[in-house]
Design goal:
The protein is an alpha+beta fold. Helices cover 44% and strands 16% of the residues. The strands form three sheets. It has a three-stranded mixed β-sheet. A hairpin with a 2-residue loop joins strand 5 and strand 6. It is globular and about 55 Å long. It starts with 8 loop residues before the first strand and ends with a strand.
Length: 248
């Protein structure tokens, strides 16, 4: 079994004190980072934020392509076959938006849902203290109450997000159309990861029962990335919410 990399510890200040985290050196190899990812996966949820950092580093630096793989997806599918691409993307999305102490406190799944809710509801989220963020949570009868994010369960966040994404049309979108929209959204998310200075949004609209995709925020010089995403092999569908996709 591989040993965890002995990277230099870097301390950072947070609202909960000083926390040490391991910086990723520029000369770290793809094999080293992949080995650490495998060990972190085996150790459980306390390492999901770190896994997201490693995932982002590999994607941002195009390390898989430089090592001879077609893309990062091919590398991860071979080396971390037990971990879905959607899950890795979620870890990466949360790691870009929140610090490790915040991720440990609220959990990566809830924080990922919060990011999706932020886009759907157009609310402000304090990355250092997301707990007070107001969430409109419906109950089983459809009655809505406002609760702070810190008091919401994963199920409540999913219900709140589903309510915000409810199509305006009385004719629901076909499930196969929503699946395809999620696949395109995930493909685009891989080319335009959060926190890289480019704010890309994918929206699926219910137009008289037909799904229509809108792409926003793509720089002209990066349109080729969008073409690659749409023409390439689409990712497998996951139940995890897609951070770029908004249903309206």
């Amino acid at each position: 079994m591989f040993n965890l990399l002995k990277f230099k510890d870097v301390t950072r200040g947070t609202g909960q004190g000083v926390v040490a985290s391991s910086a990723i050196p520029e000369d770290a190899t793809l094999e080293q980072l992949g080995s650490e990812l495998l060990q972190l996966m085996a150790q459980g949820n306390s390492n999901y934020h770190r896994m997201g950092q490693l995932y982002n580093h590999i994607v941002d630096k195009r390390m898989a392509e430089k090592a001879g793989y077609k893309d990062a997806r091919e590398y991860f599918s071979q080396k971390l076959a037990d971990l879905s691409q959607a899950t890795l993307s979620m870890y990466g999305t949360v790691a870009r938006a929140f610090s490790e102490p915040v991720a440990r406190r609220f959990g990566v799944t809830c924080l990922n849902l919060l990011l999706s809710y932020k886009e759907a509801a157009d609310v402000e989220v304090n990355a250092e203290e997301p707990g007070p963020t107001p969430i409109e949570v419906p109950d089983e009868k459809g009655q809505v109450s406002v609760q702070p994010f810190g008091a919401c369960s994963v199920d409540q966040m999913r219900m709140a997000l589903q309510r915000k994404r409810k199509p305006a049309s009385t004719k629901p979108l076909p499930s196969e159309s929503l699946v395809l929209a999620e696949q395109y959204s995930e493909a685009v998310a891989l080319r335009f990861p959060r926190g890289t200075g480019t704010l890309v949004k994918v929206t699926v609209r219910n137009q008289k029962g037909k799904a229509v995709l809108d792409f926003k925020g793509i720089p002209v010089e990066q349109v080729s990335r969008l073409v690659e995403a749409l023409n390439g092999e689409l990712p497998a569908v996951s139940e995890l919410p897609k951070p770029l996709l908004t249903i309206s």
